[in-house]
Amino acid sequence: MIPIASPVYYLGDWAGNVTDDYGVDWVVQTEDGWSSSPPIKPTQTDKSQGDGAWQGPGFYGARVINLKGTAIAGDRLSMLAAKRRIKAAIGARALAKLTVAEADLTLTSQVRLSDQIDISDKGARGFVWSLTVVAADPRRYSADSAQPSTGLPVVGAVGRTYNRTYPYSYPIPAGGTGSVFFNNLGDYDQTPAVITIWGPVINPWIAHVQTGRTLSFGITVLEGQRLVVDLLARTVMLNGTASRASAVTPGSAWFMLTKGLNEVQFRGDAGASGTGAVPVMSMTAASAWT
């Protein structure tokens, strides 16, 4: 594909503002919903006895994106094939990735088709098209994600050593706090992340320094197991299949990453290991924009 204008829109195997591999020029003439901020869901209630309203912090709604343009092919058969390609780019059921590449930044969003794809002929070799997609998560994410990780610092036992080995592994006491850092370059004040904790670790907890919120888990993650914490979906999964939401201890508070520099801390008791494995926490996150 050869870009012919900016930005370039990529959706499945289709792209807008390009000359595609079949020689068809796809021109996006109108865009609505991508460049603007998401719709706002205000939180307010009219005062029953007084002027004005009671008002709280609002929320962002789903992002609806409309694209309209023209397609010009070299011949009628190529034009007919182009119609089929744009309709095959996205369907009503599965999510698709919308990527928008601008001169300075490339951002992505997970979208689903929300209305029919309209197509109207324009001459013998061209047609006018329009499509509407919706992103349930209104954030526009950086195309590149970061995955910092940290081990669990431990303190070795203090005392006399003996030149003898016993066929048993004892838990290693945790002696410190590991930290991962992520710089959210976007302007979204609540950006999600996926945190993975690798065993062996007993009763792990994670804390977001900037908000002061902590999530702790009453669970033992054995060597070779992983506990995956999705901050957006608010799910806790062991080895990707078994829910462990019940392991979240009372007093825990879910959090999101903020704008700018974020520090997430990791603690727990290192469990028994037959191979010398140490507990590790990793975090996958991408900068997010409104």
From TrEMBL:
Xref: Pfam families: SPP1_Dit
InterPro entries: Siphovirus-type_tail_C
Name the UniProt record assigns to this protein: Phage tail family protein
Database matches in Gene3D superfamilies: 2.60.120.860
Membrane-crossing segments per the record: none
Region (Disordered): 33-52
Protein's organism: Actinomadura violacea
Record domain Siphovirus-type tail component C-terminal: where: 186-270
Compositionally biased tracts (Polar residues): 33-47
Superkingdom as given in the UniProt entry: Bacteria
